[in-house]
Amino acid sequence: MELTVYLAGQIHDDWREDLKAKVKDQNLPLTFVAPQTNHDRSDNVGEDILGEQPGNVYKDDAASSINNLRTQVLMHKSDIVIALFGEKYKQWNTAMDASAAITMGKPTIIVRPESLIHPLKELSNKANVTVETVDQALDVLSYIYE
């Protein structure tokens, strides 16, 4: 049984590639989808498609509409969502994606460091599983196949 996993979370490092490599090593039948991880493409997609916008608010709004559509389509087609909350960057998009997944009834694994236990307590309470590391999230996925 192959599962599709949506990898929500910050796009500023290679955590997704690290996870994919570990999944490959374990030979787990998982396929991954994610938000646009090219930051410039994500920020500029509205103008790339719709043309130059009259200001930054309009530029961000156009890009957000297209990014939200992409996320909605890929998340709907996913079986599980992993939402990684890190400490280095603001995590608004991760919170939005985790909330959307929970609202859709998607099985959701939240990854958050100990320092974010209190700020994420309500969201963690709604997720199926909350862990502190990506490796722990992988262990949860592996458990499905035991």
Descriptive account of the structure:
It comes from Lentibacillus salicampi. This is YtoQ family protein. InterPro entries: YtoQ_family_protein. By secondary structure, the chain is α/β, with parallel strands linked by helices. The protein has a domain at 3-35 and 78-144: Rossmann fold, CATH 3.40.50.450. The protein is built from 6 helices and 5 strands, in the order βαβααβαβαβα. A 5-stranded parallel β-sheet has the order 2-1-3-4-5, with helices on both faces. Helix 5 links the parallel strand 4 (108-111) and strand 5 (129-131). The longest helix is centred in the middle third of the chain and has 21 residues, at 56-76. The model has no long low-confidence stretch (mean pLDDT 95).
